[in-house]
Amino acid sequence: MARALVAALLIEEILEMEEEEEIAKSGKEKRIWVQDWRKKRPKRSHTNLLKELEISCPKDYKNFLRMDVAVYNDLLALITPLIEKQDTIMRDAISPNERLSVTLRFLATGESYESLKFPSRIATPTLSKIIIETCESIVKVLKDFISMPKNEEWKIIATEFFEMWNFPNCLGAIDGKHINIKRPPHSGAYYFNYKKTYSIVLMALVNAKYQFTMVEVGANGRVSDGGVYGSSNFAVMHEERKLKIPPPVKPPGFDKELPFVIVADDAFALHENFMKPYSHRGLTSQQLQYNYRVSQARRVVENTFGIISSRFRVLLTTINLSPEKCSKIVLAICYLHNFLSKRSSASYLRRIEENDKQFIEMAELQNTTSRNYSNNAKEIRNIFCEYFNSYGSLEN
C-alpha cells in the first residue's frame, strides 16, 4: 500500500512538471483558479475571528459588526434564505455568515473592497457583488422596520414627541443629509453640492425615538433639501392628502386647536403641516422662545444622522461607487438602524443624551430667511408661539 501511494505521488509530480514545461515552452502563464492564500478562507477568514471574539470579548464582537451576537444571529437567520448560494463542482459557495459579516464590516468601517479582501480572503470583484446584493437583501427582510404611519400611529408619535420633547401635535422632524460620493464619470456638476463636494441626498422623517418613519435616497446633491423634498414621494402623498394625518386637536390645557405638524428648518416651506423657525431678524422674546422649542424638537433628526454616521462609518467617507449602489448602501443602513434601535434600544442609543446640548446649539445657529407663506400657515405658527409662551412654557 505504501509503495502504491509513493508511486502515485511520483506520477502526479511528473505530470505537473511536464505541464509546467509545456507552459514554459508556449510562453503562457500558468492559470491559477484560486490563489493559495484565499484557499485558506474556511479556516482563516474573519468569521473565525468572530468566533473567538464571541467567547473571549463580546464588546469587541459588537464593535466589529455594530451589533451583539444575539441580534446578529437573528439578522443572519432572517437573511440567509435570500443570500445563500449552492456549492459548485469547482468551489464551495461563500456562506451567508461570511456574506453578511463582511457586508456589516464594510458598513462599519468604510474600508475599500481592496482592503477588505485580505481579512475576508474574498476576491475584490466578488466582494463588490456580495456587498451590494446583501444590502438589497437587508432592505427586503427588514422592510417592516420603516413604514409610513397612519391615523392612530401618527397620534402615538405625537404623544411621544410631547412627552419627550415638549412639542405638541408633532409628527416628526424632517431633514436631508448629504452622502459624499466620488464624481460619477461624465456627470459634470450634476452631483456637486453647496459644500463643494459630490453627493447624493438622504431625505428622512424621524420620530421622537430617533427612528426613521420615512426615507428617500438618491437625489443629486446639487438640489436643495427643499427641492429634494418637493420631488419626493412623501411630498406627493402630502399634497394629495394620502398621509392620513389626524385632524387638528387642542393641546392639553390650551383652548385653541392646532394641526398636527412636522418640524423642519428653513430649507422647507412654511405650511399648515410644516413648522419652521421665524426669521432671525428683529425677533421678540416670544418668537425666540418658539424658535428654541422648534430647534429642540428638530434636533432628533440631526441626532439620528449623527448616530448612523457614528455606527456605520462608511457614511463618513467618500464612497467610490455609482450613485445607484451608494443609494442601496445608505438605504440598508437606515433599515439596520431601525432594526437595531428597536431590538436593543437601551445600548444602541445610550450616548445620545450626552450629545443633545451640542445638537441644540447647532440647530440654533442655523439662519433663516424671509419668504412668502400662506396667511393660514403664519397664523398657525403664531398660535404655536402663543402656546409655547403660555401654558406650554417650560417654566410652567
From TrEMBL:
Superkingdom as given in the UniProt entry: Eukaryota
UniProt keyword terms in alphabetical order: Hydrolase, Metal-binding, Nuclease, Nucleus
One Pfam family matching this protein: DDE_Tnp_4
Domain DDE Tnp4: residue ranges: 174-338
Location in the cell: Nucleus
InterPro entries associated with the record: HARBI1-like, HARBI1_dom
Cofactor(s) the protein needs: a divalent metal cation
Family label: Belongs to the HARBI1 family.
Name of the featured protein: Nuclease HARBI1
Species classification: Eukaryota, Metazoa, Ecdysozoa, Arthropoda, Hexapoda
